Amino acid sequence: MSEKSIARDSMAVTHKSLVIRTTNIITCPADVIVDAEEGKCGATVNFPDATSNVSPSEEIVMIFNGENVFDSPYIENGMRLDGNDGSHIDAPWPIPCDNRKGALIHANTGNTWTYNGGDPFTPLRFIACTTNMKFTTGCGATFIPQQTGEVEFPDTPEWQNITSMIWEQQGDNADASIDNFRFIATPVKQQPGLESGCFFPVGTTPVTFISTDENGAETECTFNVIVRDVESPVYEVQDIEIDLGDDNSATIDANDVIIDTPTDNCAVDTITLSQSTFTCSDQGKTIIDVTVTDINGNETVKQVNINVNSNATDFPTLEEIEDQAACDTYVLPALKGDNLSGNQAYYTEPGGQGDRYEIGEELSHDSFPFYPARLYAYDNPSGSACFAQKSFQLSIDATPVINTIDDVQDCETYVLPVITGENITAAAAYYTLPDGGGTRYDIGSTITNEDFENPTILYAYDRTASGGCMAQQSFEIALNACPIQVTIDASDDILCANESQSVTLNAQPQPDEPVGTYTYQWNIVGSEEILSTDQSIEILPEETTEYHVIVIDTGASAGFDRASASITINVENAPTALIPDIINLCDNSDDIVGEETLQFVDYNNLFHANHTRFEIDYYNTMDDAVSDRNRLPESTTILAGETTFYTRITNRNTRCYDTSMITFSLDTMPLISLPEEYSVCINKATGTASDPVTISVDLPVADYDFVWTREYNGLREVLETTENRLVTNDLGIYKVDITSFLTGCSTQSQTLIRESSQPVDLEIESDFVTSLDSHEITIILEDLGDQPSRYQVRLEDGEWFDMDRRGNAYEYTFDRIQTDDGLQEVTVRDLQGCYYKQQELITIGVPQFFTPNGDGYNDTWNIRGGKNLDPSSQLLLYDRYGKLLVELEINGNGWDGTYNGEPLPSTDYWYTLTTANNKMTRGHFALKR
């Protein structure tokens, strides 16, 4: 069995790997390698952008409906359009496209587009209203729309993630216009440098991309754009003829043999001649190499014939020597020629320099550090410039030795391994026939049983390039023997110790169809007892156990007839859940009576001491808890009485669980509410309420505990009484805490006993002078704060009326009040008896007419109620022209309608009344006859 077959028979082990995922992954393309364009020292290179798992931004639309801009630049959604060389952009502007507003440029103008100060963007499409336009990237890629309407940009690398773009009008003298330009920004940005579609110089140019995620984290990658110079210099040469000088030598340079200056797509670096000095030994035709090398190492070699003329005679000459190749060793042959001195030999350098080797000397592969080696046959009998010299190249190859290769048996395919041995060359390969014949298979090739008949003979063959030194090893290969494999499927690989459901293990051999039949042997690792010989086995281990199965194909050949596999079934301890006692809860009187909201997490600690290691879920039934369905939310509402929930306590790691239950008993308290406040009158002498206040709760003392407290002036005291009622005449905040003897649940209520508010000011307003019997009187109590009370008012001994609340005041208005004797008594009181006040009000009535006809009725005119005025008050009468007629005594008999004893005519007359405090009022009345 070959080494490879043994490896295939070994049991495969599957590992689970931990994959750490980052939020920002960027992948650059592979290095791009291209040849320089013909005649150019570089190439235009297109490459895809780096890819990232960060999602690109959504499509951005420019609708050109912003503020009117008739100059440069125009900016919308981060895209900036800058006019070139004084050009400008009209946007928004009416354009010839379905009555749109878009962007317009004039003939022979253009502009440059950039996004967010240089961020990359990819143009997608736009609405072309005309076709007389061109778009150009910063690297020179162009796009010209061929139709109007919606036009898409090329979906090619040079139009993706560009950093700038030029839009210009071309082709005619008409305006060019577009609308709805769409593009996307990208989280992958290229660092400043040459972009896809740009011209890259010969050499290696690194390109770096940076990806930025939503958190601002940056990740970068770099690849190389490699432009190779594959062009060699171009030039022409010419054969020349030279004459040796008196010293039997002559020298030439490149200008003598090169017709014109060499050219190259990049630049010429060096020009060398293989021989530039000639002597009499070169007489006749000599061939030299002219080598021109460019700056990137490319070279062109051309041969030139140099015809050397000399007058020298009797100098030695050597015959030409062909290049030689040998295996392992080479014996230097005798040199042939004319006029040889007998001292001729071989040298490693021209002119008899370097190491000397004698004729007949044996050289080996190790004689030279590299091959081909150049040797020089040399003879100079007189030590003059007329010497004989010929050079040739020698290659001594080390014969390869291939190690013996074992016969191979494998399944269907086989990867040809490295050929090992000594002096193996890169040309070593496998062949279907001897001596490198038939079909060739390179090392690492995968061959199948369909490539040739099984079994067959293959040949590992190697041959040196120069000397033709070869080695060969054959071996037999058969690709029709496939070892079986087996895996174990388990219905579950983790059990909980409290489970009763067994696990099914099923052996799955491959291939599905055996050569004979499959047999099975199950056992526990570490035990020789056979548990079963069936393909499947039911197990219910009490502890973690490793199970092993051996599968044998009764018809397969030895070494390929069996396979085994193992699997570990882990048995995990289930958590043990406690069953807590009934949880007694008191209804919170602040929310809905008879209902209470539970937060289940508040009770998790009742089921297990290390409850944070487990998931605890709540259900309405035990069946739901066992089957893990209909989980309740984190909070729920219970009603008064007992409510039971069922729980499932699950280990976060093993998923093993136990169930339990919890019962809540919600007890309620009677809903009590004391009056918000009591308002009392305070005796100023004693500082206490004139009448005590009784605060009572309608609950029996036999069933409830009552605790009364009073707070006043920052001090709190617990009152002695434990009754359900409290009688007090002290001001303060009174609280009662009530606790049920049966359930222990408590409730609380409070009230305030305060001093009744006293008005700061009583204001009574009336029209001082009015018609005789139509006075309006308004009574206002001011600045009572926000404390409620009830006030009433009356005139004289009349009916009491409730006053209306107006903000921090009380108000009431009497109207159509008769003047009578001109003095009105107003009384205001608080219904609690805390306030009582009387005040008099003077009213003056003015008769509207009088009839001085002597009938005894209305024969004179005077004001009513004047007796209540100060005697210094003045009442003057005038005619309609302002002539003073009389000054009346306020309490006199009045005016009889005459002036200087003469009766005055019927008409309106005027009066002015001025009181002692200089308050003046005026009006008019009628005299009727």
Automatic annotation (TrEMBL):
Domain HYR: 129-229
Coiled coil, from the record: none
Superkingdom assignment: Bacteria
Keywords carried by this UniProt record: Repeat
PANTHER family the record matches: HYR DOMAIN-CONTAINING PROTEIN (PTHR46343), SUSHI_VON WILLEBRAND FACTOR TYPE A_EGF_PENTRAXIN DOMAIN-CONTAINING 1 (PTHR46343:SF2)
The name this protein goes by in its record: T9SS type B sorting domain-containing protein
